[in-house]
Amino acid sequence: MEITGKVIKLGNFMEGQGANGPWRKQELIIQTDEQYPKTVCLQCWGDQAAEAQNLQAEQNVRIQFRLESREFNGKWYTDARAWRIENVQAQPAAAPQQQYQQPQQPMHQTPPVANTIPSSDPINSFESTDPSDDLPF
């Protein structure tokens, strides 16, 4: 699995001695770069713990990880364990959407109306002689 985002902060660093030798664990808190950002805590073990300690807040990263679950006393615990951490360039801010521009030419042009009405058409040949009468009937 892969996740990209911005480092929010470094969480707890732990180290100790186990049956298999010394171990190191670094928690890494990132915020995803999605439409609705999520905050995620990833565990970095061994060499990745040392690599995670070199990260700075606000740094953009791409992390490949695996989910691991284990059962203890009837309860299940899940970890997101990072196995590769890469620095990535900040994504350029989304280009502002172009504002709507009025078209230069009207989309629909109305044909020009003739100033003269042919007198051969009996329906349209009405001409009023009274200037106060603006009704066609």
Keyword list:
137 residues, 1 helix, 5 strands, rod-shaped, five-stranded mixed β-barrel, OB fold (Dihydrolipoamide Acetyltransferase, E2P), mainly beta
Describe the fold and architecture:
The protein has 137 residues and is mostly beta strands. It is 5% helix and 45% strand. β4 (60-72) and β5 (75-87) form a beta hairpin. The longest helix has 7 residues, at 47-53. It is rod-shaped, with a radius of gyration of 36 Å. The chain starts with a strand and ends in a 50-residue tail after the last strand.
Give a nutshell description of this structure.
The chain is mainly beta.
User: Number of helical segments?
Assistant: 1
Q: How confident is the prediction overall: mean pLDDT?
A: 80
Biggest sheet architecture? 5 strands, mixed, barrel
* Overall SS class: mainly beta
Order of strands across the widest beta sheet?
1-2-3-5-4
CATH class group of the domain at 2-87: Mainly Beta
Shape label: rod-shaped
- Could you name the ranges where pLDDT drops below 50 across 5 or more consecutive residues? none
CATH architecture term of the domain at 2-87 = Beta Barrel
Give the percentage of residues in beta strands: over 45%
Helix content: under 10%
- The third-level CATH topology of the domain at 2-87 is OB fold (Dihydrolipoamide Acetyltransferase, E2P)
Rounded radius of gyration (Å): 36 Å
Number of strands: 5
Q: Which sequence of SSEs, written as H and E, runs from N to C?
A: EEEHEE
